[in-house]
Amino acid sequence: MRRRSFIEAGFGLFGIPAVGNAFYDNVYGAETTPSVEGVRLGKAKSVIQIWMWGGPSQLETFDPKPGAGKDYCGPWTLPIKTNVPGIEISQSLPELAKCADLYAIIRSMTHGTNHHETAAYMMQTGRMPGGGLVYPNIGAIISKIDGYDKGYKAPIPPYVVLTTSQGRFSESGFLGPRYKPFVTGGDPNKTPFLVSGFVAEGMTDKRQQLRRDMSGKIDALGAAMPENPLFEKIDHLRDSSYRLLESDDVKVFNLETEPDKIRDAYGRNWFGQSCLMARRLVERNVPYVTLNYRGWDTHKKHFEILTRRQPELDQGLSMLLKDLRDRGLLDQTVVWWSGEFGRTPKIGWEAPWLGGRGHYGRCFSAVVAGGGFKGGKVVGASSDTGETVLRRPVAPQDLLGSIIAQAGIDPNGKLENNKGFDLPVMTPASEAGLLLEIMG
Hints:
Blueprint: H1 3-10, H2 21-28, E1 46-52, H3 70-73, E2 80-81, E3 88-89, H4 94-97, E4 103-109, H5 116-125, H6 138-147, E5 159-162, E6 182-183, H7 205-218, H8 220-224, H9 229-245, H10 260-266, H11 270-283, E7 288-293, H12 302-326, E8 333-338, E9 342-343, E10 359-360, E11 364-369, E12 377-379, E13 381-382, E14 389-391, H13 396-406
Parallel strand pairs: 1-7, 1-8, 4-12, 5-6, 5-7
Antiparallel strand pairs: 2-3, 4-11, 8-11, 9-10, 13-14
């Protein structure tokens, strides 16, 4: 089934309103859309993805609508000015308001899908579902092309997820398991940060050495056939594993080596310490890091939840941007913030929602910073109530193609794979094109 037929006929099967031809052609680009030529590739070495799992509200973050009335803006009617004249953001983000010159806001993201799985797939792969292929997401693509294909050999994998796998789709798609992310598990706000396969509770260096010595003593079969090629491989893998566990690379996960004032500045919570962990990973030149930040599917008691959650977001993300800048890392690190969609502009006051917002993929916000993206800018605009894109629609592949280009990868180049598929790195941009207006 062709992608357009899938949209017209199949989306209803997933409880999603069908999307018409006009929306598909305008936002996702007709199948004959030509490739964008002449894109100047950037030099970013790493990407940090802040994935707002569940879909954050654009009206309570980067596209407030104070004049829309209570049914749209609720009790949050006082957006604040940023350090960039003319740009205002939510009153709940005072620290991010102080550093708006470091990031660009996209207020016209759109794909028209209100289903978590489908929207997440579109926002992370830049592709429509269907057609018999499961495409790799942007993390797998960058870890392949900027990682393994360029000889990446560091012990820490080139694609790291903090700290929970999303599980909504196969991140590596048809590229295969080699390009799946390393999911850390654990909680960086706890001591120690228990990283799967790297850091175990109660495991001291002395105890690790005792275990290694004991393993060697009880390996009677290996000792009896020291020349057997199979046992040679096993010994090599075991020795490599121990070298990793004993190396400085594992120390990147030890946040206790950070000064208390830095850890406090990020926030002593899961998100704040995950942002700090992401900074430490890109310092080690890890190409792609994702923070799966759960808890943003605010159908019920939306404002009560955000009153508790948004201070964490504000503190952690603002500190990450400033810390990267102060360490000279922001120019070489793309940071992008988004969920699979936004929230319905009109609030559901009735029971059982009691002031909640539903899923909304027709118009929402994203943020990009660093890696060549120009800060202090706003791309696109939404209507007075935030229900529709007023100017400059940005489709998922426009955003992802721009990030890929800033990472030095031609989004229109061939995506090499062992399946023999003749495919570009990213599906062609929509009619509106890549985010050239904010790409340095």
